[in-house]
Structure prediction request, 562 residues.
Amino acid sequence: MALINGLHQRNIRGDLLGGLTAAVVALPLALAFGNAALGPGGAIYGLYGAIVTGFLAALLGGTPAQVSGPTGPMSVTVAGIVSSLAAVGISRDLSAGEMLPLVMAAVVIGGVFEALLGVLRLGRFITLVPYSVVSGFMSGIGFIILVLQLGPFIGVSTRGGVVASLQSLISSPSWNPAALAVGLMTLAVVFLTPLRVRQWVPTPLLALLIVTPLSLVLFNDNRLLELGLEPIARIGAIPGGGLQLVIPDFSRHLPELVKAGMVLALLGAIDSLLTSLVADNITQTNHDSNRELIGQGIANTAAGFLSGLPGAGATMRTVINIKSGGQTPWSGMTHSLVLLLVLLGAGPLAAQIPTALLAGILIKVGLDIIDWGFLLRAHRLSAKTAALMYAVLLMTVFWDLIWGVLVGMFVANLLTVDSITQVQLDEIDQANPENHKDQQHHNLTEHEKDLIRSCGDQLMYFRLDGPLSFGAAKGISSRIGKIRTCKCLILDLTNVPRIGITATLAIERMIDEAQNLGRQTIVAGAKPALQRRLRDFGFTNLQSTRIAALEAAVTSCNSLTS
Prediction:
């Protein structure tokens, strides 16, 4: 296996342009996510994360054109880590040096877990999460971002999760008109900029370039104090010297950090692989999901040692990179190098960015993350799907990110098993006195049909198609118990490629019940592996073909009537 997936210089011009364009988009988002995740003074750590994860995930990952960096789910999770640590007495003040090493310990643990998912080759299973669960989860993330950014948007200091933030907003005696004005100007830029301008300059960057100087002119601290208003919050001084090394603190609150790391790993994996699928659709290529998880895991582990916010594949930045010509890992690496140059050269300028401006940018991000198309019409497609999606959304917002996904997957799998069971039961061919005349024994020869008819109401024939679920096996057993007239039962497994242990046990119980009622039971057409399993369970009345089973049944029925 090549160390670097798709790294070559045949498209170097397109990769450089794509990486530069992606960096322009990533800069304001990285600062905004850092501020949202870690609070005052946290913006720079979002930029660190974009630089580290963007470079290493591109270099080592399995999606050549993907651009990685801090994303909504990852920043929301880190914000939750900060809140949980603050609840046990850890100071939120990043300059105090207590909070950051603990948060970075969770980031490192998450990176290790994410890489292990790839090493264990679990990547393809993560992409099997049902769309209703993914939609509910991502929409929940969008709503969380909206709620958490309302405080900074109106100049109110909020702490904690969704409920705590809402309580702070309700109980706050006042809000800052200057912060609100900055936030509204930001929304005006990101929503109202003409398309012909947006095609050349991303609206988040345009908001930074326009609103930041306006805020310095219109809402400088001296003028606001003269008017009796509070100064607006800004992201503050940017540390010089580039990336900052930090030693993660694993010595305290380890169980909480491990749980947080597992959440980061799972959410990062889902986020990255969904973005990989988007990249595949655009480029008509196929990503390597396990390599992608290993690359993302290594990148996040390194970010934890370099004070960076954890990252994942970023859909908008990846799409913009590809549309601008990026095709290989050079584009993602270029994006990171451009951000590093900005960090080294423009730190003092970034210090004046208002936090209300970043909140406005993230409000637009939150609205974009919400799956409005599915959210508003899911109830017309399927009541069960809609209920599941809304349930995952509410659990994500008000309970727990990881439990929302896990419970959603569990319920979705139950619904899938029930659906498969009903399909299998509907496809079963029965031969009994109640439906003999209208039963269409498709795929049976005329000779086989004649054999079934010759047995009359003494034969019950079940033909199964596809993998046999335990639900279908139990459904067959229930049907058999309701029919009292037959003396011989045939289970035709010719078209069944596999049977699980639970389904085998259900068949065993079915056969025992039939034999207790004095019915002869024959299994027909089982594949060699199925025959071995059935024999292991003590069942020996096996016929290799359907015709042999029917002929044995006819002999049995004739002996019973004679």
Remarks:
- DSSP finds 26 helices and six strands in the chain.
- The longest helix spans residues 254-283.
- Confidence is low (pLDDT under 50) at residues 429-440.
